[in-house]
Amino acid sequence: MLNDLKAQPKDKILMLMEMFKEDPREVKVDLGVGVYKTPEGVTPIMRAIKTAEKQLWEVETTKSYTGLAGDPGFTGGMRDLVLGDAVPADRVAAAATPGGTGAVRQAFDLARMANPDVTVWVSQPTWPNHTSILKHMGVPMREYRYFDDATCAVDFDGMMSDLQDVAKGDVVLLHGCCHNPTGANLTLPEFQRVAELLNDKGALPMVDIAYQGFGDGLDADAAGVRHIVSNCPEALVAASCSKNFGIYRERAGVLMAVQEDASKTPVAQGTLNHINRQNFSFPPDHGARLVSMILADDALRADWMAELEDMRTGMLTLREQLAEELRRLTGSDRFGFIAQHRGMFSRLGATTAQVDEMREKHGIYMVGDSRINVAGLNKDTVPLLARAMVDVGV
Ligand code: PMP
């Protein structure tokens, strides 16, 4: 029977990583995989995580199971971090999940339990895992226009026009900040208009927030999702700790279900627990516990916020340097969008052929849709990328 399995398509980013490793050239730049890197190319363990791990080793007395929804200190801490005081805590059911991906997957499961005929709307483009998970689950999906290839900014008119077709009971998936893969984001007034539209349609907003603190700051990055939860009767929010706490392999994330009426929160909570139970039982605890320790301790939290802010401003500086270098080389401002984009990614607007040429001729590796990981650059490689872009005619 297992002989009947069909080969799955290879992951494009992992294939790119392989190619990069095998490239013998001395000068080569990896802008593919989506992990934060220092200018030296290292993905560091954040200082506060190291300190919390040391403390945890001292005080942890058991590795017995947590609750099905994980540690309430974690889910409560994350609720406050992401949602602030935008919604009363008693309207929010929350469960720890294996990373943000786990939260996304559980959210789709929950939506389908609530409405077996649900259609999930995703931005075109979106993080490829959104679409592949929906396909894997057999959940119907529709796309709304999002990115304007000509300006490399959000095509908000196209988005609003496509969302006119949203039906009651559909789910509309939004990126909370730092859109992956484009780097182009909704402004707060645009979030407000989307919220109004979804309320008019009777659709459920789902916000995936995987890069809080990587764009304009922890609170600014959460402004959109906070507006949604305070203005829409119900919402799903999937948050990841992988990037902003740098704990990718620990798999820490949270799914929150915001209920219209607090009396219904226990049912939502029970459903989240149930879905965890069916899929993996208890969620991983180590990363989640480190996060809850950091969020609950003033000194650890301040140190974490300071390091996160350094990471954020470092990426912003790289954006500005790249935009400036391109301005100098082309004498035009048409790459100004790179400094406007936020987060770890930018879609540069290069064709597949240009992406291939930049890799083959210049040793610069990026995803085929011309998404770059800005954190893969440093001040020495910014000019290399700029020159390659101009050379291949982007
Ligand atoms: N959503 C988006 C849009 C992402 O880019 C990512 C990370 N690549 C995630 C969710 C979840 O990441 P993880 O499962 O590693 O926490």
Key structural traits:
Aspartate Aminotransferase, domain 2, PyrdxlP-dep_Trfase_major, alpha/beta, Aminotransferase, seven-stranded mixed beta sheet, binds 4'-deoxy-4'-aminopyridoxal-5'-phosphate, 2 domains, pyridoxal phosphate, Asp_trans, 394 residues
Mean pLDDT: 97
Helix/strand structural class: alpha/beta
CATH class of the largest domain, named Alpha Beta
Quick one: biggest sheet? 7 strands, mixed
Q: How much helical structure, as a percent, in the residues?
A: 40-55%
Ranges with pLDDT <50 over ≥5 residues? none
Please give the domain count.
2
Cα separation of the termini: 49 Å
Strand order of the largest sheet: 2-10-9-8-7-3-4
Bound ligands = 4'-deoxy-4'-aminopyridoxal-5'-phosphate
* Helix segment tally: 15
Q: CATH-wise, what's the superfamily of the largest domain?
A: Type I PLP-dependent aspartate aminotransferase-like (Major domain)
Question: C-alpha Rg, in Å?
Answer: 21 Å
Domain Aminotransferase class I/classII large: 28-388
EC number: 2.6.1.-
Organism: Psychromarinibacter sediminicola
Family: Belongs to the class-I pyridoxal-phosphate-dependent aminotransferase family.
